[in-house]
Amino acid sequence: MKVPDTRQSIPDFVLQLRQKLPQWAHTDWLEQTGSTNADLFELARQYRTPEHWPRLLGSNHQTQGKGRAGRPWLDRSGETLMFSCGFMLNMPTRLLAGVAPALGIATCEALRPLAGHDIGRLSMKWPNDIMIDDSKLAGILVESRIMGNGIFLVVGMGLNLAGASDLSAELNRDVSDWSSLDGAVAERSRLVAQVAQSWQQCLALHSLAPLQHLRESFELFDYLRNRQVNVLQGDQIQLTGTASGLAEDGSLLVRLADGTMESVRVGDISVRKV
């Protein structure tokens, strides 16, 4: 596959994004920033009403990017697609628990039509890591705050465009990249816009019918299904069992050796080698 061209000028790239997202309140892209998630939270302090949202903000390089559990996100110049979207929502706080897997499913739904001949290699590892085969392609970070009578929610994603072999060596674990997919779409603005639109649609549906609209899709994309897994808190194994799908609240169902079912709401999931 042709590697997405990151040499395109930022003004041209922003113009393409705005043409693809005409209903969005604002779309911008920076050469460098600390964290696009943090930048959107700062903007939310200035623009607190729904007409100023949704907004998309991306950056070619982030110096303080992070993943789940506060882990630093390592990006390599020109080889990572990093952006965040901010949404002002009228949603009960009880629904926030299922937002992370819902957005992971929505990301898979957005990327699969762009994955060329390798559409079947894309999947989602609960709660929202995007995988190619057995290696991580993209990570998603969902953060939220109560603002007035609503919820301000930011979704950030880092997707490896290229350089997986070097990054794997640097991280000491296997990762994948978009360029490894045969016939995948190489236009960066199309990738970003497709995912952003899918997130927006997902959140609108989630407010009305939490997870019901995505349960079938989760079964299609579920990387962990029927695999033997360990649930970790830090370096400690909390439980071991068989991944068995998605619960109604968005937690991961794990069947233990005695047949009982546990709902996992937090923690890292590692696949056991058998």
TrEMBL record:
<dbReference type="InterPro" id="IPR045864">
    <property type="entry name" value="aa-tRNA-synth_II/BPL/LPL"/>
</dbReference>
<dbReference type="Pfam" id="PF02237">
    <property type="entry name" value="BPL_C"/>
</dbReference>
<dbReference type="InterPro" id="IPR004143">
    <property type="entry name" value="BPL_LPL_catalytic"/>
</dbReference>
<keyword id="KW-0436">Ligase</keyword>
<dbReference type="GO" id="GO:0005737">
    <property type="term" value="C:cytoplasm"/>
</dbReference>
<dbReference type="GO" id="GO:0005524">
    <property type="term" value="F:ATP binding"/>
</dbReference>
<dbReference type="InterPro" id="IPR004408">
    <property type="entry name" value="Biotin_CoA_COase_ligase"/>
</dbReference>
<dbReference type="GO" id="GO:0004077">
    <property type="term" value="F:biotin--[biotin carboxyl-carrier protein] ligase activity"/>
</dbReference>
<dbReference type="Pfam" id="PF03099">
    <property type="entry name" value="BPL_LplA_LipB"/>
</dbReference>
<dbReference type="InterPro" id="IPR003142">
    <property type="entry name" value="BPL_C"/>
</dbReference>
<keyword id="KW-0092">Biotin</keyword>
<keyword id="KW-0547">Nucleotide-binding</keyword>
<dbReference type="InterPro" id="IPR008988">
    <property type="entry name" value="Transcriptional_repressor_C"/>
</dbReference>
<protein>
    <recommendedName>
        <fullName>biotin--[biotin carboxyl-carrier protein] ligase</fullName>
        <ecNumber>6.3.4.15</ecNumber>
    </recommendedName>
</protein>
<keyword id="KW-0067">ATP-binding</keyword>
<feature type="domain" description="BPL/LPL catalytic">
    <location>
        <begin position="15"/>
        <end position="207"/>
    </location>
</feature>
